[in-house]
Specification:
Blueprint (H helix, E strand, L loop, with lengths): L1 E10 L2 E10 L5 E5 L10 E2 L2 E3 L1 E6 L20 H12 L4 H17 L2 E8 L9 H15 L2 E8 L21 H11 L8 E2 L1 E3 L10 H11 L5 E5 L3 H11 L3 H8 L6 E5 L5 H10 L2 E4 L1 H6 L7 H6 L3 E4 L9 H16 L13 H17 L14 E4 L13 H8 L6 E6 L2 E4 L7 H22 L2
Parallel strand pairs: 1-4, 6-7, 7-8, 8-9, 8-10, 10-11, 11-12, 12-13, 13-14
Antiparallel strand pairs: 1-2, 2-3, 5-15, 15-16, 16-17
Helix pairs in contact: 2-3, 2-14, 4-5, 12-13
């Protein structure tokens, strides 16, 4: 057992002082006390917060972030961005995926994310590499120290009704039998802080008859495995779903699938009241990625109404335009303020601190979506923690939960000094022990890919 001491921090809904955590060798918190002075010479950290789960990541897109902001004559929207992304995906080998994911996960850790849901659809870039592509992601998680919920993606069609895939989608495609076989082969590789789940890319990419076999396969392996899906991200998708099934996407999902607490509906941007109420009633998590949703022009999810109805949410960095939980939460709140011309929109009904409320709720919702025992500092939870630099200018004058408000809403510099995952300090004094080597490999690999694409005129 190890004891860790903190000057102050967010424990549940309370701001406590002189905190002592006892952590077992498996990284789980076994005892929590406050008002405890550390023995002489013992390091005292603080303030301490629960680390944030990143519930939605496409790791390979990190190397593409910022490279699709040039507009040709004509339309520029999600669908034109997708075409450019397909060109980039063709160059992803298992080695490149491992290098890019390793660097990304270090960036996430330094930003206060301790766990990631890797929405992994890059299976077959050059040949049948499904297993080695997933193993590349797992190696990156091990190298960086982040906790991984690996979410292999079933992707079979280009549009509703099982339309054949486009040529650019070839790296993503699986038959149902091959996909369920991949899940079975992968399962023994996941233990400890890593989890295996299941993802349907979207309703347009997975025919209706493929849902049940995939869910049966993952339930045979793990009845509590998380299930994720992109849904209702764009109005074009909603309209196409109406043409196909005479139902909206979330409406169709709620009517045909056993959506429950295991499910994470990513984006769900364009929903009507019956849909967001249905999601809240089922207890699923909505995965919100405000920086990516803003970058792609998706729209704004009705978070105020959903949360007021008891809905659960978490945040993800998705395409990694930003790797900063603070910015995701800030933009989430600001979008609601702009839409309503009001302030502190997403604060709880009982009032309180907006930043602190957002951090707590996103941490708990993200933990649920990833099936990870994290999201709060409590006995029985894993010791995934972040420590803030109390001397940072953004915290001047802040006290108690104002510290979390300032973290979310004040300043751009990163005040996170230390990050613990499963009881181990992965980031100390703002640095990962292998970051120089990891970032060096990343720069070389992405530079090489960029040169290849330039030669191709992509």
């Amino acid at each position: 057992m190890q004891k860790h001491y903190f000057s102050e921090g967010l424990v549940g809904k309370d701001w406590l002082f002189d905190i002592c955590l006892t952590v077992a060798p498996d990284g789980m918190i076994t005892a929590l006390e406050s008002g405890v002075k550390a023995p002489a010479g013992t390091p005292v950290h603080g303030p301490v917060l629960p680390a944030m789960p990143n519930l939605h990541s496409h790791a390979f897109q990190r190397a593409f972030a910022g490279l699709a902001e040039f507009r040709e004559a004509g339309a520029s929207d999600f669908w034109s961005w997708r075409t450019a992304m397909y060109h980039f995906a063709r160059h992803m080998t298992p080695e490149a995926v491992e290098v890019i994911a390793s660097a990304l996960y270090v960036e996430m850790l330094k930003a206060g994310y301790s766990a990631v849901g890797e929405f992994h659809y890059l299976h077959n870039a050059h040949e049948d590499q499904s297993l080695v592509m997933s193993e590349a992601v797992l190696k990156a998680a091990d190298k960086s120290g982040i906790a991984l919920t690996h979410l292999p993606v079933l992707y079979q069609a280009s549009d509703f009704g099982g339309e054949p895939p486009l040529s650019g989608q070839a790296p993503f495609i699986h038959t149902t039998d091959d996909f369920t076989r991949l899940l079975k082969v992968l399962k023994p590789r996941f233990d400890g802080r890593h989890r295996l789940g299941l993802t349907f890319h979207s309703l347009r990419a997975v025919p209706e008859e493929s849902f049940a076999p995939a869910i049966d396969a993952i339930e045979t392996l793990d009845m509590k495995a998380p299930i994720h899906i992109h849904i209702a991200e764009q109005t074009r998708e909603v309209n196409a779903c109406m043409d196909w099934a005479d139902k909206r996407p979330v409406e169709w999902l709620l009517d045909t699938q056993n959506v429950d607490e295991r499910w994470c509906l990513v984006h769900a941007t364009h929903v009507v009241e019956a849909e967001w109420r249905g999601m809240a009633e089922r207890g699923c998590v909505v995965g919100l990625c405000p920086t990516t949703e803003a970058n792609l022009g998706d729209g704004i999810f009705p978070a105020h109404e959903f949360i007021k109805a008891g809905g659960r949410f978490g945040v993800g960095s998705d395409s990694h335009i930003s790797i900063d939980a603070r910015e995701e939460l800030r933009l989430l709140e600001y979008g609601q303020r702009l839409a309503r011309q009001a302030r502190t929109v997403l604060t709880g009904a009982e009032g309180g601190h907006t930043g602190e409320h957002l951090w707590r709720q996103a941490a708990k919702g993200g933990a649920q979506a990833l099936a990870q025992p994290i999201g709060e500092i409590a006995v029985g939870k894993r010791a995934d923690l972040i420590v803030l630099d109390r001397s940072a200018p953004m915290f001047a004058g802040a006290a108690y939960s104002q510290i979390v408000d300032a973290l979310v809403f004040s300043g751009q510099s990163n005040p996170i000094t230390d990050v613990m995952v499963a009881g181990d300090w992965i980031i100390q004094d703002g640095k990962h022990p292998q970051e120089d080597e990891i970032f060096g490999r990343y720069n070389e690999t992405v530079g090489r890919i960029a040169r290849l694409m330039e030669e191709e005129g992509a």
